Amino acid sequence: MAIERTFSMIKPDATKRNLTGAITKTLEDAGLRVVASKRVWMSRRQAEGFYAVHKERPFFDELCEFMSSGPTIVQVLEGENAILKNREVMGATNPADAAEGTIRKMFATSIGENSVHGSDAPETAAEEIRYWFSDVEIVG
Ligand code: ADP
Ligand code: MG
């Protein structure tokens, strides 16, 4: 299995509850390495651009409002099979459906305020990394 990079965010509900370290430790314990990280308070416009794929969904406004409501940690994670591994350690979108030991099961408060984001495929990972980071900010 090849070494991959994926894009991750620790969402405002989690930064507000001081969970940046706990969530990052869970990612690291799963074998993922943080090769880029910064704290951003994204604008409404940045949130709309990042989540453009969801713009027809009924929750789009709520999602963009939430994501621009406080600080977020944007990260690039590296490791074997990193994209799928991150999705596994995140857990299901709705914390009520998330497996024991996953980040969303442990920390998420609702389907909207679900503590973390993770890319779902190689193409979206590359796009999402490029949305937030320049090459010199990623140090493997
Ligand atoms: P995931 O983050 O698991 O990839 P999606 O890509 O389907 O999930 O949705 C993006 C984000 O939109 C979710 O993480 C969540 O914050 C929000 N979201 C998804 N579905 C709902 C919903 N039914 N109501 C409110 N917010 C939602
Ligand atoms: Mg998604």
UniProtKB/TrEMBL annotation:
Its cofactor is Mg(2+). GO terms for molecular function: ATP binding; endonuclease activity; metal ion binding; nucleoside diphosphate kinase activity. InterPro entries: NDK-like_dom, NDK-like_dom_sf, Nucleoside_diP_kinase, Nucleoside_diP_kinase_AS. SUPFAM superfamilies: Nucleoside diphosphate kinase, NDK. SMART domains: NDK. One of its GO terms (cellular component) is cytoplasm. It is found in: Cytoplasm. NCBIfam families: PRK00668.1 (NF001908). Major role in the synthesis of nucleoside triphosphates other than ATP. The ATP gamma phosphate is transferred to the NDP beta phosphate via a ping-pong mechanism, using a phosphorylated active-site intermediate. Belongs to the NDK family. This is Nucleoside diphosphate kinase. The gene is ndk.
